[in-house]
Amino acid sequence: MLQEDVKRELRSIVGNEDYKDDMQSLVTHSYDGTPMLQSLPDGVIYPADTREVSEVMKVLNRYRIPLISRGSGTNLCGGTVPVQGGVVMVMHRMNRILEVDLENLTATVQPGLNTKQFITHVEGLGLFYPPDPGSMAVSTIGGNIAECSGGLRGLKYGTTKDYVIGLEAVLASGEIIRTGGKLMKDVAGYDLTKLLVGSEGTLAVITEATLKLIPPPRYKKTMLAMYKDIYGAARTVSKIIENRIIPATLEFLDNPTIRVVDDFAKLGLPRDMEAILLIEQDGDMESVERDIASIEMICHSENAAQVSVAESAEEALKLMTARRSAFTALARLRPTTILEDATVPRSKIADMVLEINRIAQKFQVQICTFGHAGDGNLHPTATTDARDQEEIHRVEAAFEEIFEAAIKLGGTITGEHGVGLVKAPFLEWKVGSAGIEMMKAIKQGFDPLNLLNPGKMFAKESRKRVVIDRG
Amino acid sequence: MLQEDVKRELRSIVGNEDYKDDMQSLVTHSYDGTPMLQSLPDGVIYPADTREVSEVMKVLNRYRIPLISRGSGTNLCGGTVPVQGGVVMVMHRMNRILEVDLENLTATVQPGLNTKQFITHVEGLGLFYPPDPGSMAVSTIGGNIAECSGGLRGLKYGTTKDYVIGLEAVLASGEIIRTGGKLMKDVAGYDLTKLLVGSEGTLAVITEATLKLIPPPRYKKTMLAMYKDIYGAARTVSKIIENRIIPATLEFLDNPTIRVVDDFAKLGLPRDMEAILLIEQDGDMESVERDIASIEMICHSENAAQVSVAESAEEALKLMTARRSAFTALARLRPTTILEDATVPRSKIADMVLEINRIAQKFQVQICTFGHAGDGNLHPTATTDARDQEEIHRVEAAFEEIFEAAIKLGGTITGEHGVGLVKAPFLEWKVGSAGIEMMKAIKQGFDPLNLLNPGKMFAKESRKRVVIDRG
C-alpha cells in the first residue's frame, strides 16, 4: 500500500474514482495472460490524458514508486505482472482514434484503443492495418506497441514495428517526448520510435501513436493442405518461399492441434493427418490466382494427402477463425496452457518441429505445435496443470531445451511475445553478454531509477546453457 | 599524427600496407560528399575482417583515439569527416557477399560491398533489394546502413532500415556484438538492429549485415506528367495516395531542375513546364495497368499539360536515369552544390515547395527543388560558390529557414541524408531537448569515451529558432 500522502497526490491528478487500491482492483491487476505468475500492485490508476500520465509519473518518480503501464494484459511473457509492486497504470480511458488522415494514410490513436476495433474502423474507410495478434479482439494498440505484436499476416506485411511511425511517450522523469511523425522517412537522430516499439514498458509510457496505413488487398484466397508426413508440410513452406511467393498467411498445425481445433470448431478436419498448412494469399486477382495455383502444385509435389481451396469467403473465414481458435481450444484440454514462441529461420521449421517432438518425448510432457510457419515463428504449447509441481518442472525443463534448440538453429527465444519475466533468464542466450550490456545501458539512460516496469527483460541471473533434467 | 608505438600496434594488426598516414591518404580521407567540410585524420586503416576491426578498436580505445568508419564517403551530411582527427577506417577490403540464402530470402554481406553491385547480383538470382540511394553506383552497403539510405523506391518499398534484419558490429570496447539474424520476427530485447541502422557510425562499427530480399515485381510502367502549375503537380501527388495507390516511384522536378536535367540528358523535355512528375508503378501487369490508368486520370483532372507513358523499357530507363542525374546535372551549374533533404508529410508537398521558393527569393539564392514527392522527401538544392562567403551565408540562412518551415509543417530536418555535422545544430528542433537527452544517453551507454565518429549527431549548441537574416 502506498503512503496516504502519495495516494492523495495521485487522486488529485486523476480524480478520486480513478485511483483504486481495494483488494478486488489489486487482485485483478496482479496477473496477465501468462499462466502461473501473480504479484499484487500497490494501486491501480486510470489516467485520462497525457498530462495526467506525466503528472502521475512525476509523483511516482519523486517517491521512487514503480509504474507498470498496461492495456488489456493479454501478453504471454508476464510483461505486465507488477513483480516489484508499485502502481499499475491502465490505459483504457485513453482509447480514442484521434485522427485518420486520408491524405497521408496515417492514423493517430491513443494507447488504450482496442486493436480489433481499430482494424475494423480503418477497414470501413477502405484502408488496412495489418498487425493482427491472436489477442486482437481484446488487446490494445498500446500493448501491441509495447510487445511489438505480430500475428497471422506478419509474413507478408510485417509486425507492429513496421506500422508505428510516430510516438508520444512519457519518460521516467515525467517529461513528454515526441518521436517521428506523419513521415515516411525520417533519419533525424537515433530511431527512438523503433526502440520504444517492443520495449515492453521499460523505457517510457506510450501515450499516443501515429500508425501507417496501407491500401487493402482487393482479393484473397484461402487454402488447406494436409499431410501424413510432417516434413512434407515443412518442405512445402520452404519451397513456397524459394519459389519467390510470399503468402499473406502460412500457418502450420500439427496433429494434436488439428484434433483439438476440430473438436472445438467442428470443421470435419481429417484427424489422422500429421500436419495441416493453412495458406492465404491476397493482392490482385491475377497474382492471387497464379500464386495459389503454384502453391497447389508445390503441395502436391510434397505429397500432400489432400489440398483444398476455400470455395467462398465464408469458408475461408471459417478456416481462419478455426486457426485463430487454436490457443483457446488447447486451453480447454487441461487446467494450464503454456504457449511459447521460439522462432527459427523459416528454412529450419522441419528441424524445429522435430526437436520439439523429441524434447516433449524426453520430458514426457504434452506439447502441441502450431504457428506462423512462413515466419519460422512456431507456438509449441504445453497443456499441463500448475498444481502438479513435478510436471510443471518437466514442462519448464522442456521449454528451456526448446529455446536452446531454437538458438542452435539460428533462431531466437521469442518471435512475437516479448521477454518480460518469462524469457528474461534466456535473453543472454540470444543477444550475448555484450548485447545485454548495451540493452542495460539503454535502460539506465532512459530510466536511471528503474521505475518503469522493473524486473522485466533483464534477469538477475542468466540461465546456464546446460539443461539439467529436473524431471 | 599518431605516436609511433600506436602506429606500430595498428600495423601489426592489419599489416604495413594497410595503415597509411602519407599526406595523400590523409587528404583523400579528410572530406566526403558534403561540400565545404574538411578535416585531416591522423591515419587511415583498411581492415580485412571483423577480428582486425575489433583489434584496431581495442588499441584505439586504449589510447583514446577516435575512429571514423566509412565506405565510399558519398554521404551529404559531413557524416564521415574526421572533425576531431583520429583514424579513418575504410571498409573497402571487407566487400564480399558472404551468402545469398535462397530458402530464407536473405543475403549476408560485408559492409564495404558496393550497393549497385549487390543489387545487380541479387537481381541475377531473381531477387530484389529495393533501397536505391542516388549514390548507389559508388556507395557501400555499410554506408547505406550507417545513414539509413533511402532512394527512389522508398515510397512503396521503404528504406534501408526495412531490409536490415541482422548485424554484426564492433563496439567501442572492441567487443563484437551480433543482433537479429535470418529471422522475420525477433523481439528478444530492445531492437539493437534498427537502432544501429542510421546511427551514423557513432554507436558501433558495422562489420556484417543480414539483409532481407523480396521477390521482384514482374512488370513495371513509367510515366511523365507535366504541369504549368506547380500546385497541380503537388495536388496530383496527394490525390494518388488518397486514391489508395502507392506507386513504386513518384518523383518531382521543378522548372529549374527540368531545364538543367534536360541540358544534361538531352531528353527534349518541355522547358516551359513548372513541374514534372516522374511516376513508376510495378507489380503484376493487371494492377500496374490499372494503377497507371488511374494515375493518368488524376493527372488530367489536375490539369497536367502533358501526360505520357513510356513506350518501352528503354524509354523508361532513360527517364529514370535522367532523374537520377539531377544532382550531377545541377552540380555543373556552379562550383558548389548543396543538396538538402527537408521532409514533410506527403500532403504538405505543395506548401513546402511554396516555402522553399519564398525563402530562396527572400535570400536571393538559387534553389532548384526535386525529390521523392510521394515520401514528402524533397531535395532543395542550392547552386552556389564556396569562395563567395557572403553568398554562402545567405544560402545557409535560407536552409536554416527551410528546415524551420519543414518542422512547422510537421516534417523533419532530414529524411534520408542523416544528421552528421551539417544538421547537428538543428536536431533539437525536431526531437526536442528530451529527445536529445535520450539520444545522448544511448550514445553514452554505447561509447562512454566518445571515440566513435565524435562530433557528429550532437552539436555543442543548438541553433536558435529565430532566423536572423544575415544576408
Automatic annotation (TrEMBL), chains A, B:
<dbReference type="GO" id="GO:0016491">
    <property type="term" value="F:oxidoreductase activity"/>
</dbReference>
<dbReference type="InterPro" id="IPR016169">
    <property type="entry name" value="FAD-bd_PCMH_sub2"/>
</dbReference>
<keyword id="KW-0560">Oxidoreductase</keyword>
<dbReference type="InterPro" id="IPR051914">
    <property type="entry name" value="FAD-linked_OxidoTrans_Type4"/>
</dbReference>
<keyword id="KW-0285">Flavoprotein</keyword>
<dbReference type="InterPro" id="IPR036318">
    <property type="entry name" value="FAD-bd_PCMH-like_sf"/>
</dbReference>
<dbReference type="InterPro" id="IPR004113">
    <property type="entry name" value="FAD-bd_oxidored_4_C"/>
</dbReference>
<comment type="similarity">
    <text>Belongs to the FAD-binding oxidoreductase/transferase type 4 family.</text>
</comment>
<dbReference type="InterPro" id="IPR006094">
    <property type="entry name" value="Oxid_FAD_bind_N"/>
</dbReference>
<dbReference type="InterPro" id="IPR016166">
    <property type="entry name" value="FAD-bd_PCMH"/>
</dbReference>
<dbReference type="Pfam" id="PF02913">
    <property type="entry name" value="FAD-oxidase_C"/>
</dbReference>
<protein>
    <submittedName>
        <fullName>Glycolate oxidase subunit GlcD</fullName>
    </submittedName>
</protein>
<dbReference type="InterPro" id="IPR016164">
    <property type="entry name" value="FAD-linked_Oxase-like_C"/>
</dbReference>
<dbReference type="Pfam" id="PF01565">
    <property type="entry name" value="FAD_binding_4"/>
</dbReference>
<dbReference type="GO" id="GO:0071949">
    <property type="term" value="F:FAD binding"/>
</dbReference>
<keyword id="KW-0274">FAD</keyword>
<feature type="domain" description="FAD-binding PCMH-type">
    <location>
        <begin position="37"/>
        <end position="216"/>
    </location>
</feature>
<dbReference type="InterPro" id="IPR016171">
    <property type="entry name" value="Vanillyl_alc_oxidase_C-sub2"/>
</dbReference>
